[in-house]
Amino acid sequence: MSLRIDPTALDEIIKATARGERGADEPTPKSYDLNPYDLDTLTSSAGGYLSGDTHQGTATGLSYAALRALSRVPLISAIIQTRINQIAEFARPQPDRYTPGFVLRRRDGAEVDERTRAQMDALTRWLMTCGDTNLIGVTTFEALIRQVTRDSLVFDQACFEVIYDPSNGLPAAIKPVDSSTIRRAAVSEAERLSGRRDPARAAYVQVIDGRIVAHFTAQEMAWGIRRPRAELAANGYGFPELEEASSTIIDIVHSKAYNSANFTHGLHLSGILAVKSKMSPALFRAFRREFYSMLQGPAGAKKTPIIQLDPEQKEEISSVSLSNTNRDMEFSSWLNFLIKEVCALYQLDPAEIGYLFGNEGQTNSLNSAGPSERILHSREKGLRPTLRALETWLNRWVIHPFSRELELCFVGIEADSEERRIKATVDKVKSFMTVNEARATFDLPPLEKGGDVILDSGWINANAGGAGEGAAGEDTGEEDIDPADYFERAISVKTSF
Q1: How many CB atoms lie within 10 A of CB 278?
Q2: Is residue 436 part of a domain?
Q3: What is the pLDDT of residue 469?
Q4: Cα angle at 433 between 429 and 435, to 5 degrees?
Q5: How far apart are the two ends of the chain, measured CA to CA in Å?
Q6: Which domain holds residue 439?
Q7: Is 279 inside a domain boundary?
Q8: Top-confidence residue, 361 or 69
Q9: Alpha-carbon distance 91 to 146, whole Å?
Q10: What tens digit of pLDDT does each residue of 228-248 get?
Q11: Whose CA is closest to 213, among 221, 223, 205, 204?
């Protein structure tokens, strides 16, 4: 039974809020997080959670089951699985600076002492098993990341339970849950009147078959939203991409169904078989049955029309087109547009899932880019924000309860290589960095002689012979030094870059 509030009383509360009459003992916000007039959507028929199976973040009222069904369309499944595989590469400690992974570090950037290092190592081992395996069974951090990421990309709602140890108040384990079963708990009368939630009450519930089976506080259940909104009607739920792309996905399904029907139920469009013969109708029907039994497609598809003509009457057949062909309707261009539209909503370039459009190998245009450059740009657009959201959720619900000084960070998204690092360093040495400074970045000892130079021809000619040897503009009697030759001599003294 839903609670009914006297509109007059509610108006008085709102006016009091505007005057700041909420108590002077503690700071209290004046703005509303809940719509106190929208009573019907704040309590389900069961009376214990917000909404039934309808996802409150969808403007069209899609259910969790509908969103899951949309995610199983092959194109959407390919997009989601591609992003999951990319993110799963970061679900392990980074083995070196060139490989994707995660690291634990101090939030203030200070130097790590032995005690903090031991704490970081222990917490890393804890993360790899998601805590105490006796509580949740054998699982891995990568499995948790894959499950949480999938729910986030389907529902824009990533949930996992944090199990606390009552003996010390610290997390004992983290356990992924089916995000489609987690709802925000219904608000109380006091929360309706105040227009905001009470952090001391149960924040979330798990609903299975319309029944509440568990309650969770805000610390016990992670509630990760990648696309948050301040819209009151959303009630704190996410804004899934699938809701925006639903009409486009339906168009893709209909287009495939249309083309598929042409092969499963259509006629053979190459022509009509005309038989000029004086055979009797019964004999002609027997001939037609025999013809169909030999040439008819599976399940009765691709039938070839057969007609009998009288040669003496000079009967003829003329072809009349009653519909456009797929080519006439620009069928391929239409499908390509739909694919690009869905990929744009997921901030993913079609090249990442194998769809190449145009002359992908040509890069002769000044402003054109090949697939590799577009994929790198796509990862900056879509992958990096998703990783940043995962960092935020893991730090808030897992890392910070252990230590407020530490944070988890996903690194290596650029996937740099040793060759690229050397090339970048050489470019710096030719402009503003000395050889010894460059060697220091590779943990190499400085050169005793000739290392404090910049490999720029103007700088070398002005300072030929080393520091203090030959003033700027002074003729030393030596020929100009080629920076490339000088660089080869400098790095050959000891270990090269």
Answers
A1: 10
A2: yes
A3: 43
A4: 65
A5: 74
A6: 418-491
A7: no
A8: 69
A9: 9
A10: 988 888 888 999 999 999 999
A11: 205
